Task: structure prediction
Amino acid sequence: MILKNINSFKAVEMKKSIVTFALILLIGLGDIFAAGHPNNIINQAQVDEIKKKIQAGAQPWKKAYDKMMSDANGDMSGGFPSVTSNGSVISGTDSRYYASAGGYSGGDKRDIGVIEDASRMMINLGLAYSFSGQTKYADRAIDLVKYFCLSNTTGMIPSGKNWGGGGIVHLLFGLQGFFFGADFIIDYPGWKASEKAAFIDWITKTIELNKVSVKGDLSFRYENNWEDWRMCHVGFAAIVIEDETLLNSIFDRWKEIFPTHIGNTGQMLDDITRDQGFTYSLFGLEPYSQVAAMARNRGMDLFNYNGGGKSLKKAWDFHAYFMADWSSRKSEFLNTTIEGKTKKATATANPGKEHAGLFEIAYSIFKDPDYLKVLNKWGRPSVMMRKLGHPTLTHGNWFDLPGGTISGIAAPIISPSGGNFKGSKSVTITTQLPPNQIETIECPINKVRIESESINKA
Result:
């Protein structure tokens, strides 16, 4: 059972015998839970804490903020991207459909660049509005939505299909950044209700084909990173349109396929032997990390999830070793023995700074100095423009923010003030945060609902 809108007070599942108790705090508990948006891999309460760091000139946030604002200001002028600007790659097909042709090399890929540009702009403008409070950035982002999504002449027709016959993965990971950025403006009071509703409808229709599987094909083989990015794509969209049931299904799917995609030593089993094995492995690790961050803000700890001895920590460890000194360790990577495969690892493409940004999340969760080595090697602030945007700003050094990280949190203890819940007017909730920080709150019993569900293990 998942707790929604969690702020600096981190609650997790409470397991006693064969019953899971979930505490659901209702409206009116102030700063315990953040309400509304953004509430994706960072919520507004966390944004507010980071803003305090920026105002104090604290690093790494100040440099990351300055970089983000510079990029956002660059997006305040000029035209907007549209899938219509390149024409259609299919004769007779409406140019407003997303269309790319060919495999990973060759073919017409112009629409891929278009949706990545739209995502980059939305991330920059959304973050600028959220962190600065200046409405001009939200207004510009809304103009982007109207042009890129809603216009009858330039807007992309909502469809989860690649009408060019090429792969769908570029649409999946390309638009997830757009959804991520949109969550920062979706509660903007200056947005006309009718336009906002039309945008939510556009998102709903865009993800419909890929809600439960890639291209709606339940027999599709979930190889490489297509399914990984589908989860991320749909997860961010579900947050914007407030479909908690859909989001919970993504968390369930994450746990289901995690042990099949990540090996015992942290290798990305379906990516490491591809023609660009190392960069594809990092590319496949990103959506797992992002979905885990979504779950974190809802009280679910996927960062420490153990899938048959496999974990995100092992995956980060495996890749951090090579990222920290790629030039001298590349040959070692190429001689890596792959679990259950006869092929060796491949690496025809070298990693870059954009790949290093993934380790902002890893370092914040586990505070592992090896992850900091990666960040320092490639330089901070990190920038991942088509996906997370500015991860140093949004995910840098979480352990220095109030409430710390979810890693290692003990289950909260709920105690009725009257000795039992029946007849009590209030309850006391105590949780332990790392490192050994105790937080206790007391709230009226009429603001609490205790629910239980059976589970199949002690």
